Amino acid sequence: MTVIWKYSLLLSTLLLFNGCTKPAPKPYSYPNYEIIKPEKSCKPNRKNIQDLLYTYLGKPYVWAEEGPHAFDCSGLVYNIYGSMGIEVPRVAREQAKMGKHVPFKNLHYGDLIFFGAPNQRSKTINHVGIYLGEGWFAHASSKDRKVTISHFDKEPIYVKRMKVCKRYLSEDERAKYMQCDAPLVKMEATTSRYTTPWQPGMQLPKKAVPG
Fold first, then answer.
1. What radius of gyration do the chain's Cα atoms show?
2. pLDDT tens across 24-74, in order?
3. Counting CB atoms within 10 angstroms of each CB, which of 92, 172, 192, 197 has the fewest?
4. Full-model pTM
5. Does residue 68 fall inside a structural domain?
6. Is 135 exposed, middle or buried (0-12, 13-18, 19+ CB in 10 A)?
7. Which residues are catalytic?
């Protein structure tokens, strides 16, 4: 009985040890299409949008990244709103389905502007920016290869590319507009425990957009 008891104790210890061992996260490879969901770190309000955004200004543009060290356009929106506990889709075309339609002249800080091809007939959405006021907006720019701030007067191509403006957070910050215009494509999210985002010191991709 003593030998059996010792064997059982050893087996239980090994099982306990293996159960507590965390699996190593998948190493980074470009592009990393796994979606890393941000942890809620603050309340939903415009002051926190500003604080998060200013923290990320100048961070590199890397396709399919949602931070915290690199972003693509929709990844920046996904991170900032997700950090405030507002769950939004990961990609721009899905983000544009949600929220309240807002005319450009009525935009407030933190509202979203969605862009596509200059052709007015095209409904395709491939870019998103965060409105800052007085014609300024922030975005992760594939052209500038970083999170930056642009102005419609200085870059009028964005006026031609504008498709729709949406609001997730009401003016008084008491309500969240999360209704959908069309069914959303479900995309599974994970954490940095299982996959590795782009890290400082890693080489930046030669092409901003793969392929």
1. 21
2. 899 999 999 999 999 999 999 999 999 999 999 999 999 999 999 999 999
3. 172
4. 0.89
5. yes
6. middle
7. 73, 127, 139
